[in-house]
Amino acid sequence: MAKVPVQFTLNGSEKAEFVESGTTLLNALRDKIGDTSPKGGCHQGTCGACSVIIDGELRLSCLTLAETCGGADIRTTAGLAEGGVLHPLQRAFLDAFATQCGFCTPGMIMAAKVLLDRTPNPSREDVVEALSGNICRCTGYEPIIQAVLLAARANSQNAA
Amino acid sequence: MELRKDYFADVRKDGLHEIGQPRPRLDSPGHVTGKTAYFADRNFPGMLHLKMVRSPHHHARIRSIDASEAEKHPGVVRVLTAKDVPHNVYTILILIQIGPEDETVLADGKVRWKGEAVVAVLAETERAAQEAAAKVKVDYEVLPAVFDMEEALKPGAPLVNEYHGQNYYLYDSGECRKVRFGDVEAGFAQADHILEQSYQSSPIEHAPTETTGCVVAPEGNDRFTCYTNTQAMFFTLDNTSIILQMPGSKLHFVGGTVGGGFGGKVDVIVEPIAILGAKLTGRPVCFIYSREEEMQISSPRAAEKVVIKDGVMKDGRIVARKVTGYTDAGAYSRHSPYGAQKGAAHYPGPYTIPNVWIDTYCVYTNRTPSSAMRGFGVTIGDFALEVQMDKLARLIGMDPLEFRFINAYRDGDMKAHRQPTEGAALIECMQEASRAANWPVAEKYMAMSSYRKGV
């Protein structure tokens, strides 16, 4: 199988890899680069556990080919905390008891981050809509929704 | 949250400083930073991928297996069949002397459910393993299959599992688990009304977001480290030790981090064959269920049928209850004989009934083997019992909550399976529920207590 070079920025660091043509971004991140924060739950674009941010857009890394990501700015949950300080969303997920098994958490946080980047003061309906592509089989949706609203409030207080 | 400390204040030490206080979870910091290490986050150089060839038939004899084309497929390192497994026939609960061993790691001569593992293919990449698995030729002679529990129990039904010899689990009490308490026929004779109803459920899949799997690394000292998402670490270690005829000291299991289990990860399925693959190739091995396998292959909650016949008095007392329960184990036992047994103890529900007669059957059919899931053996029973309670209350024209107060078990009551009731608190829970749901009941029920004075 032919290998193709791919180069992108991951959480601010330059990355370059040779991947087999057809390799998903999910597998490239996890198996080649070693960022295992995006999870593989279904590999068919239905569970949202593999969600990452590519050039500011929420993307399913299991349905994105690595070779299409040349030059992209890719963000994952592993790169959210800065200098050991948790991002407000991470803090809120802790404080609002929004994790159970944790497998959906990185994807949930990615989806929530894209929402808050665009809509700093979302309504509950906005949050529900933004998380609608992410499955939590522990069914802890309510604390997750509350965590995102809590993070939004924390952000607006910091800005004020 | 409201913490009601007035209940049982005289018998309880008031040292509940943690309850009602938020406490951080120890695992959350790992979850929110993506640092929590699930088994599939382990990656080893040279790791092989295992894919399973599965039965397309519900019940069939295997005439022959031809893996020669698969072995030649580029990237394939090893193909495993039943003869490669040192102790191929096993059953999980043999560890607590619940036999017989009735399930094969890889099918040997026969398949008993659609999806049963027949041949394991180990290859350099997941894709090569998948492609090679499609090249394995298995010649089947299809046999008649049975999918319905009552059909399976009829004389002349196809025999699902020869290791049992009949389509039910043979308990030391016979063809079913039995509870006999008082005189159920005398109770029915005395009853003002009799209500017999039948309740049925389908299998339920847990559908965890993280699929079942493990990653195995052979260590330099002839030991194997198995990173797994099993919910039953020591069951898995001990059964693997039996299946591979390998001392437990050679096996190092690392787990405890599970991306959703709900009981669906207590069977011993992926670890023994992955460790065998690592042993025979000397390479790390990864065996992860696809989403399709998780939904179709992993054990669901058993389908159940519950037939309840109750005798009830006009004043609300249940005086007799006869229950026949059926648990669909599918083709193999796994945890189902235990689940069916739990049902036998549970069917009176949290109620004190003087005359009880219970039979519960663990039945074999050519369906996906079922196993544990959140309260298995009692959850479907509770659905049936509480629907039955509502129907009984309607039958005698009584408020359904008051009807339950009349029959609620209280401390000191003897349960049908001869365990005395202790610390019941059912009355108090219903009193709180009555207030919280704004569903008022007569004052005499609000004055009741789970305690019986002088007991």
UniProtKB/TrEMBL annotation, chain A:
PROSITE patterns in UniProt: 2FE2S_FER_1, 2FE2S_FER_2
Record-linked InterPro entries: 2Fe-2S-bd, 2Fe-2S-bd_dom_sf, 2Fe-2S_ferredoxin-like_sf, 2Fe-2S_ferredoxin-type, 2Fe2S_fd_BS, Beta-grasp_dom_sf, Diverse_Oxidoreductases
GO MF entry, a single one: oxidoreductase activity
SUPFAM superfamilies documented for this protein: 2Fe-2S ferredoxin-like, CO dehydrogenase ISP C-domain like
Pfam families reported for this sequence: Fer2, Fer2_2
Transmembrane annotation, as ranges: none
Location of the 2Fe-2S ferredoxin-type domain: 4-80
UniProt keyword terms in alphabetical order: 2Fe-2S, Iron, Iron-sulfur, Metal-binding, Oxidoreductase
PANTHER family: OXIDOREDUCTASE WITH IRON-SULFUR SUBUNIT (PTHR44379), XANTHINE DEHYDROGENASE IRON-SULFUR-BINDING SUBUNIT XDHC-RELATED (PTHR44379:SF8)
Protein name: Xanthine dehydrogenase, Fe-S binding subunit
TrEMBL record, chain B:
SUPFAM superfamilies on file: CO dehydrogenase molybdoprotein N-domain-like (SSF54665), Molybdenum cofactor-binding domain (SSF56003)
InterPro entries, per database record: Ald_Oxase/Xan_DH_a/b, Ald_Oxase/Xan_DH_a/b_sf, Ald_Oxase/xanthine_DH-like, AldOxase/xan_DH_MoCoBD1, AldOxase/xan_DH_Mopterin-bd_sf
Alphabetically ordered keywords of this record: Molybdenum, Oxidoreductase
Name recorded for this polypeptide: Aldehyde oxidase and xanthine dehydrogenase molybdopterin binding protein
UniProt keyword annotation of Acetylation present: no
Coiled-coil portions: none
Segments forming domain Aldehyde oxidase/xanthine dehydrogenase a/b hammerhead: 33-144
